[in-house]
Design brief:
The chain is an alpha/beta fold. The chain has helices at 2-9, 17-32, 37-47, 50-62, 79-96, 111-117, 119-136, 160-175, 201-217, 234-256, 292-302, 304-325, 338-342, 345-356, 370-374, 378-389, 406-409, 421-425, 431-446, 459-467, 484-496; strands at residues 100-107, 143-147, 150-156, 178-180, 183-185, 189-195, 223-225, 259-268, 274-285, 288-290, 332-335, 364-369, 393-399, 416-419, 450-453, 472-474, 482-483. Helices cover 53% and strands 18% of the residues. Bound molecules: ligand C2E and calcium ion (2 copies).
Length: 497
């Protein structure tokens, strides 16, 4: 530790303040991880080198916006920091003409620990497995927690064969029996190994991930070393690289308040009243707007949607409160993703939200896809029941896009069915779409649901959908999604006219 430290320390007096911060960043990354903030401070104090302490303090103050770059549970680097570290080490490897390997470790069937023993026990098991992993890896090699049950080890200056041997040792160490309550659990894992080719650090991580997925699919195989930069994978790699850069942008947007909601009205065909407004998430980062189709799938894959979803629910509830106070008792509909509904804390979010706000629960609606209503897992069922019990209404979103099973419709606790835009898009020409719209509308209404058609852009579409018996319409014909500031004015003029 002190060897590296001295290298930085010796020239510290001559550094420009901005370089000092850079050096501190370097010192922090090299000397002090993986360890917590407090451990780091203890370490530097122990060293009793004032410039070093100043250096790290400066770094930390500069890093104020993002002090949580270590994973709380394991003390390993978190995902975002791991990407930065991979970039830095790959640049260094290229510069020094040395090697860099990455091991992607995914715990098999870890979800079963959570479902069988509860999340607290799950966390304890994870922490113990993380400790075993750390015991196998040299302190000089960064370890990161990159997913709930996935870890990554970066191995600079290590030949492929040595990395393979290490992967085998890790596999055996994790497999050792572990007592969970009174049950002995043996944790297996899938490991992917990749060696740096002519690519950025992110490329290395992607190939380690792919290798891990292959190991997982070819059950029993512990490990697959991927070929370096083959053309076969180039398409998949490009997509994934884009996802990683979107993930970076999402973190930035989270830190800088880049998320907002817009609201799109839904109009009743008979009364011409606004029956609801759908809250739609927007993300602006580095002066650029990302579309939901770009960022929602990434937020879902990385689990960020859970935090974002909580934010959306709270923000929509506040908007609904303000609209109510301004004389518009408008129901707001919020989209909810699978990851949110499988997380136990969803119920707590709902309860907290209804407790802190004065909002009547009937003014909130959740939009869920069919597959979620059909999901029999206890977590999803519990969360849906809790939402219904709390008095929220539920809508089936994008109906007709999945493998719709009509038999399920009778058991679904939804009051509303939203017909997907694909059925509306080619009206009035597409008679087959119209036939489907008519049949579904009739069926849903007989089952006690109201039917909303999405994506209505023309007056012909409006008329044909009204004739088909649809209850409400949503689309650019009435309004594009609007920011809250413009929504109130829109509602006033629409209701007035
Ligand atoms: P969705 O739930 O089906 O939302 C309706 C989408 O249709 C919105 O796209 C809306 O802007 C668009 N739309 C509305 N009227 C028209 C029209 O007349 N013509 C056309 N061409 N499009 C129309 P957007 O805002 O891009 O959202 C896309 C999807 O992203 C949403 O589809 C939803 O699945 C997801 N999404 C958006 N916000 C959230 C959110 O807060 N949470 C979650 N989990 N998903 C969200
Ligand atoms: Ca929706
Ligand atoms: Ca929809």
């Amino acid at each position: 530790m002190s060897r590296l430290f001295d290298a930085n320390y010796s020239c510290i007096d001559r550094l420009h303040p901005s370089d000092l911060v850079k050096t501190a960043t370097y010192t922090w990354r090299h000397l002090l991880h993986p360890c917590s903030y407090n451990q780091a401070i203890a370490c530097t104090t122990q060293l009793k080198r004032q410039p070093a302490l100043m250096c790290v303090t400066l770094f930390l103050s500069n890093y104020n916006k993002r002090t949580n770059f270590l994973d709380d549970l394991t003390g390993f680097l978190d995902r975002q920091e791991c990407i930065l570290e991979a970039e830095r080490l790959s640049t260094r490897a290229r510069y020094n003409n040395s090697t860099l390997c990455a091991l992607w470790i995914s715990l098999n069937r870890f979800r079963e620990v959570n479902t069988s023993f509860g999340h607290q026990a799950g966390d304890e098991v994870l922490a113990r497995l993380a400790q075993r992993l750390a015991e196998q890896v040299s302190p000089a090699h960064p370890i990161a927690r990159i997913g709930a049950d996935e870890f990554l080890v970066l191995l600079p200056d290590i030949p492929l064969a040595t990395a393979m041997a290490l992967a085998n040792r890790i596999h055996s160490a994790l497999r050792e029996p572990l007592l969970v309550g009174r049950v002995t659990w043996r944790q297996s894992c899938s490991i992917g190994l990749a060696k740096l080719g002519n690519e950025p650090g992110i490329g290395l991580l992607e190939r380690a991930d792919q290798a891990m997925q292959e190991a997982k699919q070819s059950q029993g195989a512990l490990l697959t070393a991927t070929a370096i930069g083959t053309d076969r994978d180039s398409q998949a790699t490009t997509l994934k690289r884009e996802e990683l850069s979107i993930e970076e942008m999402l973190h930035e947007a989270m830190e800088n308040g880049g998320f907002s909601l817009q609201y799109q009205p839904v109009i009743d065909v008979i009364s011409s009243q606004v029956v609801a407004c759908e809250a739609l998430m927007r993300c602006r980062v580095r002066g650029e707007n990302l579309t939901p189709d770009q960022f929602i799938p990434v937020a879902e894959k990385t689990g960020m949607i859970i935090e974002l979803g909580d934010w959306t629910l709270l923000t929509a509830a506040r908007t609904a409160e303000r609209l109510l106070a301004a004389g518009h008792p408008t129901r707001l509909a919020v989209n909810v993703s699978r990851a949110q509904l499988t997380a136990p804390k969803f119920q707590q979010t709902l309860h907290a939200l209804l407790t802190v706000s004065n909002l009547p629960p009937s003014l909130l609606e959740l939009e869920l896809t069919e597959s979620l209503f059909m999901d029999a897992s206890p977590a999803v069922r519990c969360n849906l029941d809790a939402a219904v019990e709390a008095g929220l209404s539920l809508a089936i979103d994008d109906f007709g896009t999945g493998y719709s099973c009509l038999a399920y419709l009778k058991d679904i606790p939804a009051n509303k069915l939203k017909l997907d835009r694909t059925f509306v898009k080619h009206l009035p020409e597409d008679r087959k779409s119209l036939a489907i719209v008519r049949a579904i509308t009739r069926l849903a209404q007989d089952l006690g649901m109201t039917v909303v058609a999405e994506g209505v852009e023309t007056t012909q579409q409006r008329d044909i959908l009204m004739n088909a018996g649809v209850n409400a319409l949503q689309g650019y014909l009435f309004s594009r999604p609007l920011p809250e500031t413009r929504l109130e004015a829109w509602l006033s003029s629409f209701e007035g006219g």
